[in-house]
Amino acid sequence: MGLPSGCSHPSFTSHARGLLTSLVTLLLHQLGSAQLRVVGPGHSVTATVGQDVVLSCHLSPQRDGRSLEVRWIRDKFSETVHHYRNGEDLYGEQMEAYAGRTELARDGLSAGSLDLRITGLRPSDDGQYVCTVRDADAYSEAIVELEVSAPFFHNAQPWMVALALVLVLLAVSIGLGVYLFRKQGKLAAQGWSAGRCSAGTRVGVVWG
Fold first, then answer.
1. How far apart are CA 113 and CA 106, in angstroms?
2. Which terms does the record give in the GO molecular function aspect (predicted)?
């Protein structure tokens, strides 16, 4: 016996609703994953030993990052440099070398800024850092390259370094030349004086 016109089978209707719900859930999940994207500065960050530095990283498109889990790690060691979750900093997994030297900037966190501040740079801080972000449904990361240089050579071009070396060598050469010239002059003066004394002694002997 057929169903009356305009009526649908209950099991078919339930199946269609379940399928529609699954599709909507999947779409929302993919949309959320697409929205959670981390962007780095796109260039190396340079700083000098002893200075403080800020490693920039932000969410794109802009969104509030206060409810996310943010972890900065060293790419070489895959260890935690700084960990933030649920509105607080967690230091249990932090590398000992960074203890007391890191801070996640809070003033821009609500606008999607995930900047990390490192104080008192050391030569060992040089290298790659990874800014990772995670929520319940998605994960994203961005790489930031930090170049730490010695104070004298900070931002120095190769020709500047070469010129500095040439000037140093020139100054050393001039100083050495002046020293040898003066020493030679003293030796000559001593020889002349000794010659006069010797001549005077011979004259005295003849007259005697």
1. 8
2. signaling receptor binding
Q: Do residues 38 and 133 touch, judged by C-beta distance below 8 A?
A: yes
- What is the pTM assigned to this prediction? 0.59
Q: Which residues contact 141 (CB under 8 A, 6 or more apart)?
A: 38, 130, 131, 132, 133
Write down the mean pLDDT value for the chain. Answer: 81
pLDDT-based confidence at residue 159 (cuts at 50, 70, 90): confident
Q: Would you place residue 9 in the very low, low, confident or very high pLDDT band (cuts 50, 70, 90)?
A: low
| Dihedral sign, Cα of residue 176, residue 177, residue 182, residue 187 | positive
Phi/psi at 108 (5° precision): -110, 5
What is the distance in angstroms between the CA of the first residue and the CA of the last residue of the chain?
A: 166
CA distance 141 to 133: 6
Give Cα 77 distance to the centre of its chain.
15
8 A C-beta contact, residue 134 and residue 72: no
| Tens digits of residue pLDDT in 16-75 | 565 565 554 444 444 444 578 999 999 999 999 999 999 999 999 899 999 999 999 998
HSE on the CB side for 42, CA within 13 Å?
2
Residues 147 and 41: their CA atoms lie apart, in Å, by 14
Query: Do the beta carbons of residue 131 and residue 142 sit within 8 Å?
Result: yes
